[in-house]
Amino acid sequence: xxxxxxxxxxxxxxxxxxxxxxxxxxxxxxxxxxxxxxxxxxxxxxxxxxxxxxxxxxxxxxxxxxxxxxxxxxxxxxxxxxxxxxxxxxxxxxxxxxxxxxxxxxxxxxxxxxxxxxxxxxxxxxxxxxxxxxxxxxxxxxxxxxxxxxxxxxxxxxxxxxxxxxxxxxxxxxxxxxxxxxxxxxxxxxxxxxxxxxxxxxxxxxxxxxxxxxxxxxxxxxxxxxxxxxxxxxxxxxxxxxxxxxxxxxxxxxxxxxxxxxxxxxxxxxxxxxxxxxxxxxxxxxxxxxxxxxxxxxxxxxxxxxxxxxxxxxxxxxxxxxxxxxxxxxxxxxxxxxxxxxxxxxxxxxxxxxxxxxxxxxxxxxxxxxxxxxxxxxxxxxxxxxxxxxxxxxxxxxxxxxxxxxxxxxxxxxxxxxxxxxxxxxxxxxxxxxxxxxxxxxxxxxxxxxxxxxxxxxxxxxxxxxxxxxxxxxxxxxxxxxxxxxxxxxxxxxxxxxxxxxxxxxxxxxxxxxxxxxxxxxxxxxxxxxxxxxxxxxxxxxxxxxxxxxxxxxxxxxxxxxxxxxxxxxxxxxxxxxxxxxxxxxxxxxxxxxxxxxxxxxxxxxxxxxxxxxxxxxxxxxxxxxxxxxxxxxxxxxxxxxxxxxxxxxxxxxxxxxxxxxxxxxxxxxxxxxxxxxxxxxxxxxxxxxxxxxxxxxxxxxxxxxxxxxxxxxxxxxxxxxxx
Length: 724
Hints:
By secondary structure, the protein is of the alpha+beta class.
């Protein structure tokens, strides 16, 4: 049977197939480029290239473990994962991944690596379907091609970028499609489809309430101003409101089914306004609006230091100041991430405005445009929301230009030529975008080895960037990770990494034991905490109070004394110290270089890392104005001059044992220079950081044998076990 493209349905399916295949093919460029590159493989499979992906992978892994070994419901939840391990077994991403892993004949690693490739490419379906609604399928094809590979969308959905973003644009685009069809056709079936879209979107991405509410607000505004007598609009608003309530999805689905049944019966039309009012009350009483303000506050109204309102009112450094995706971006970057090129972006914006003028229903897409434009204020990741909508804009202009061409051949050629022009910058970006995997194979081997040493109840302490991968590969607990990294939990970890070994060891034991105690307390009194809205103390504040201090500074000073009584040891603690942490150590310092009582930031310790030094007969240029005079051993730092205290050279011998050569130059100086020959890295740092646990244990392997026991020592990662 021949496929006839004269049939609109066949043509729609054909365009979807072309766009989907194109999207998948572009995402396989990274795979082809790194095929066979061993540092990106573990156990013969590609590793993923986003830290957060290991969070969902941990949950899916634990779900698979439970279903494979514990069919009994009680045992299932007992053995699924250990208490308080923070494994996300109840999240949609983990559940969907586990489902795919059960039904597909591929390895778990392959599934999480390729899921973004295929799921994110589904965005072409609602794009083409929306274009079909507007009777402009060619616009849909061009928009789908561009949207599927635009910079920011590709960056967050490429092969290996296993994260919720693989459906975070697909689902709202389906919601936009169902809303457009509902308003265009006025058919009751689209009421149910819209509500189900919202339920699925919220299941997948709990933060979807902001966009859902924006769609609702826009429809409500239009209805009240231009269409107040249209009962269908109130039906749509009502069922949306019930679907958007801030309660469990099962109850929301039940409410949606009941409301839909009432609307279909046609007997309740005279009560629609009462039902609508009931839905609004239910939405607000369920706390539907509360999360929206919380997210805006986190991304837009950011403070560098946050004060805890209860207890000692401690001040903590906020992590949002160090997260790149929450920072303001230049206009060129903003434009490129949405459309691939500044000119394309400007034309696309004009095209969208013209499209909305010609087809007013496309004004429904304004919430996605607005959320995408929020990135320019603060929130790099938000650009992906504007991608498909502005892709419609330029695609519409291309098709309109083609319409005025005198012949059919010129119409087709013009569309192809303009489409290639807007796709080319995005293709070049994909070709050049060679991001690495989160960890190298050597680093993962260390964690895999640690998995066979540590128990599931043990803690591995490292910076939050590495929390999820550590939990996934070593199957242990961590203090901080990509989701648990606010200032109060980061402080103890920052403190122990950047302070001397003795106080660091005490802080590690204290923080682990207090963290476990806090989990037990929260579980025991969770209902009372919820009912009375009780604010719990941070672990550092609880330590201070239990030690009999009212000033956290006094408590921290007490760690230096030898008579500090530590909590009873309940589990082992390991320090995971990767070489890659060296470059972010100044950022790590920020979280503990703070007077918690006043919020005053301390003087930042000096540290400079150079990976590209230039050496001459008389000097060593480390870059950025840092130059060492080799004859006098005076270090020029900008306009300042200082003689170095010590020059240290480290190297690994054939047995991969670290050897150090230490030359004392000026004992009175505060600045040292470390040359890590195997890494071709120079480190200039003051005594504060030189004496830090990270530098002493990872860079120099100078560990206090009374406090630490080396477990795994490699050039890329050092793992030590705490003895106290």
